[in-house]
Amino acid sequence: MPKVGDFFESLRATEFVLVVDGTESPGVSKVTGLSEGEWDTVDQPDGGSEHIYKLSGAKVHFDSLTIERYVDGSNQDQRFRDWWRRTFHLNAPVQGGSKVRKNGMIIKRHLGEDVLRFAFYGAWVKSSKFSDLEAGSTNLFIQTIVLEHEGLERVD
């Protein structure tokens, strides 16, 4: 990171790219849920006292990733639509459900250079929704996609 005087300049949250199955997805404007996981906590009382020990449980939970992207008529619209349709297709005899999984990465850049990578594994589309339509507004049309996944980690 660039050193400015006596301190290091913080990274800005504005420069990043989403990669799914090796393909960059332009038009993504926001990613939330970058959590490296959380252990369940078990409370173990100390018999005969008022002290309770906090122990890590056996389960790790990961936050869902929420992706916001601009709907622009590009082939990215079709890629996300196809992923959604493989997961949930109203008239199909069998739904794809959570078995339609993909791996991906969120690459954080600073001044055009990759500085952090977050890899996610086994992601599937939990939900897809669109922004409201409003006559007379200047808002852009946005798709919000929620991905459930098996894990997220910082990688080199």
Keywords:
mainly beta, about 160 residues, Pnp Oxidase, Chain A, globular, two-stranded antiparallel sheet, about 10% helix, 1 helix, eight-stranded antiparallel β-sheet
Structure description:
With about 160 residues, the chain is mostly beta strands. The chain has a single domain, classed as Pnp Oxidase, Chain A, CATH 2.30.110. Helices cover about 10% and strands about 50% of the residues. The strands form three sheets. Strands 3, 4, 5, 8, 9, 10, 11 and 12 form an eight-stranded antiparallel beta sheet that branches. Strand 6 (about 40-45) and strand 7 (about 50-60) form a beta hairpin. It is globular, with a radius of gyration of 20 Å. The model has no long low-confidence stretch (mean pLDDT about 90).
What can be said about this structure in brief?
With 156 residues, this protein is mainly β. It has one helix and twelve strands.
Regions with little confidence, pLDDT below 50 for 5+ residues: none
Q: Work out the helicity level.
A: under 10%
Provide the gyration radius in Å: 20 Å
Provide mean pLDDT, rounded: 89
Overall CATH class: Mainly Beta
* Biggest beta-sheet profile: 8 strands, antiparallel
Order of helices and strands: EEEEEEEEHEEEE
- Class computed from helices, strands and strand pairing: mainly beta
What CATH calls the topology is: Pnp Oxidase, Chain A
Q: Estimate what percentage of residues fall within beta strands.
A: over 45%
- CATH architectural label: Roll
Count of separate structural domains: 1
Helical segment tally?
1
